[in-house]
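[job 0412] stage=complex_fold ligand=magnesium ion status=START
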Amino acid sequence: MTLSFDGVAGPDVAPLLADGTIDLVERLTAASNQTWLAVLRSGDVQARCVYKPIAGERPLWDFPTGTLAGREVAAHRVAWSLGWQVIPPTVLRDGPLGQGMCQMWVETDPEVDVIELAGRRDDPDLRRIALLDAVINNSDRKAGHLLATPDGAILGCDHGVSFSVRYKLRTVLWQWRGTPIPAADREALNRLAARLRDPASDLNAELAPLVTADEVYAARRRAEILAEHGAYPYPSPEWPAVPYPPV
Ligand SMILES: Nc1ncnc2c1ncn2[C@@H]1O[C@H](COP(=O)(O)OP(=O)(O)OP(=O)(O)O)[C@@H](O)[C@H]1O
Ligand SMILES: [Mg+2]
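[job 0412] stage=complex_fold status=DONE, emitting structure tokens
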């Protein structure tokens, strides 16, 4: 399925996202980080986006301040490298409040209840999001970070607290724990791991300015271990494995 963002699709997305003018619309979150709904414009092409300026990042105890935007972009690069278009196109760029992450806005189906959505067991996008989270070590997969489009795709957003070298997987998507990873997804993990092992790969060049070398290595080891074991991980007993609140 070709993803469309306010009618912008295919090769039109990347130039708009990279070079379009960003006009702020409103803040999406009142208290925490500065997360803006904005509009990208280039000529007569326009589409909504999320813009998170690095300067608006709230300090966290477990991730260095100023690194969350890069983690979001890295998550997108890893997802698309796996061949899974489950994170909207995301880049690091300049904007009205300085450098930040900019991500295409996904129109969501208002009929879909995110709690019901997060509990689905047979959706291939959702199952891949759960596996991607294990690779990137996402510590904030709330149901509200799942976006169901009107044509039935599911994407994820808000990957700023990913790529830690410590096991921090915190998610509402535990329904596949201990079950076999489908063969095609295992192959995708192996291809990803091979790219991460190759010091000259495009993916390594893309990730280098976004997360640390240790974090890239840890992601590679997680991909290798998941592919080798061939099963979805279990929650850690030493870590709150479900986000609170779960939405
Ligand atoms: N690309 C997107 N397309 C559509 N909706 C989005 C997108 N990104 C974020 N949202 C919506 O905006 C909300 C806030 O975004 P996000 O969770 O990324 O911000 P945040 O500042 O990290 O928030 P919080 O700290 O509350 O988790 C999301 O829960 C989601 O509903
Ligand atoms: Mg959020």
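The longest helix spans residues 213-229.
[job 0412] exit 0
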